[in-house]
């Protein structure tokens, strides 16, 4: 059976059009028509050169993936899409709706209304093998193409208007965390995630985001968040390739020893080098960095851990916000551009070796970071647990003989 490429696979479509001598300006009009007519055939797109129709019919499809199932949570705000790929594998994407009027700014109710955020998968399974994560138990099957990544946005857009998109590392599946912006008129950032480590599929990630921020999608880069376990070499080039994005880092421990115990891949990304990479990213991008921290009872949730984390993050700096921008050469500590998200642990099965931290421990941890270190700290609200869409629960429970074992630490690129 012939294998077709997604029409949203920008690099392949551009290359094929160039080879056929067709102007690539038609790419945006092709995408716009498919968005407006999701059940169309590519031959129905108007005003294309005749050679373009032949090319599209033989090489591409409007969609190479299909929505297999849709699950709605009882809380009414979470929708999970089970998406079947062309190769028979499945990934999950999650839509969450959050009413910004429920938040506060400066102690007063915020303006706004409902906002939908899409959490996108970048891989089938994951190589990282984190011990608290369901997705990690799947092993790694394959990377998604850029077209398969973009198609998740298209599928979701047929259900609701998507304002924010997040590529997040595998264990924060459908947890909503609304982070209030410094600007009254800003709607804030929502943190969600899908399956896979986005920066382990770097080329496809970059290409997909460039499509999403271009015509006809026109998503603002500041509405897109990329989360990572801490792939240092990819973080070092992310800002130059995709300026303006938000970065979220799955830290989960304030010291390297504990981090390696719960995240085996952390051995490839030493904490000291990771912090240096994050400081450089923050200085260059002037964007917020979100620190993700899953609360595990007795493992990383004691007061000493809160103080260790606070001291670790004290070193972060951002450029001054004077009229001269960075030209004045002055730098100051400003941890308003650093946000810690405390994440309640979701047991991923009866065999889980971890327990959920008590509400009191989470509250005490937050108070130390806020009160002693003046670090903005939020606690994620659990949503979508009844459809296995909450933190640590995202895993496709379908048999697949093509699953590969988790990557050995020696095979991870530093």
UniProtKB/TrEMBL annotation:
It comes from the Eukaryota. One of its GO terms (biological process) is rRNA base methylation. Signal peptide: none annotated. InterPro entries: Aldolase_TIM (IPR013785), Methyltransferase_A (IPR040072), rRNA_lsu_MTrfase_RlmN/Cfr (IPR004383), rSAM (IPR007197). One of its GO terms (molecular function) is metal ion binding. Residues 112-386 form the Radical SAM core domain. Its cofactor is [4Fe-4S] cluster. Keywords: 4Fe-4S, Cytoplasm, Iron, Iron-sulfur, Metal-binding, Methyltransferase, S-adenosyl-L-methionine, Transferase. One of its GO terms (cellular component) is cytoplasm. PANTHER family: 23S RRNA METHYLTRANSFERASE (PTHR30544), RADICAL SAM SUPERFAMILY PROTEIN (PTHR30544:SF8). This is Radical SAM core domain-containing protein. It comes from Gossypium harknessii.
């Amino acid at each position: 059976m012939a294998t077709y490429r997604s029409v949203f696979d920008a690099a392949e479509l551009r290359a094929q059009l160039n080879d056929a001598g067709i102007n690539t300006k038609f790419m945006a009009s092709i995408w716009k028509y498919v968005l407006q007519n999701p059940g169309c055939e590519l031959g129905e797109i108007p005003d294309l050169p005749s050679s373009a129709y032949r090319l599209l019919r033989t090489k591409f499809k409007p969609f190479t993936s299909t929505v297999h199932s849709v699950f709605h949570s009882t809380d009414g705000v979470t929708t999970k899409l089970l998406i079947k790929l062309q190769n028979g594998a499945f990934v999950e994407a999650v839509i969450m709706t959050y009413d910004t009027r429920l938040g506060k700014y400066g102690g007063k109710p915020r303006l706004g209304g409902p906002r939908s955020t899409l959490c996108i998968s970048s891989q089938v399974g994951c190589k990282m093998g984190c011990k608290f994560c369901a997705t990690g138990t799947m092993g790694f099957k394959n990377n998604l193409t850029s077209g398969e990544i973009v198609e998740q946005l298209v599928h979701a857009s047929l259900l609701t208007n998507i304002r924010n998109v997040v590529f997040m590392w595998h264990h924060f599946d459908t947890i909503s965390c609304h982070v209030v912006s410094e600007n009254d008129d800003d709607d804030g950032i929502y943190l969600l995630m899908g399956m896979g480590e986005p920066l382990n599929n770097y080329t496809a990630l970059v290409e997909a985001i460039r499509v999403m921020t271009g015509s006809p999608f026109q998503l603002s880069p500041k509405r897109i968040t990329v989360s990572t376990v801490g792939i240092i070499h990819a973080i070092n080039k992310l800002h130059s390739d995709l300026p303006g994005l938000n970065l979220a880092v799955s830290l989960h421990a304030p010291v390297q020893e504990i981090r390696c115990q719960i995240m085996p891949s952390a051995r490839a990304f030493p904490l000291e080098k990771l912090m240096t990479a994050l400081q450089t990213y923050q200085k260059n991008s002037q964007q917020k960095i979100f620190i993700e921290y899953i609360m595990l009872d007795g493992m990383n949730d004691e007061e000493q851990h809160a103080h260790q984390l606070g001291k670790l993050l004290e070193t972060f700096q951002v450029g001054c916000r004077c009229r001269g921008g960075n030209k004045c050469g002055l730098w100051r500590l400003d941890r308003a551009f650093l946000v810690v998200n405390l994440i309640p642990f979701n047991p991923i099965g009866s065999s889980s070796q971890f327990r959920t931290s008590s509400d009191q421990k989470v509250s005490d941890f937050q108070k130390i970071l806020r009160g002693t270190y003046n670090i903005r700290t939020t606690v994620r609200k659990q949503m979508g647990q009844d459809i296995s869409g909450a933190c640590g629960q995202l895993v496709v429970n379908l048999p697949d003989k093509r699953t590969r074992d988790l990557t050995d630490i020696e095979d991870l690129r530093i």
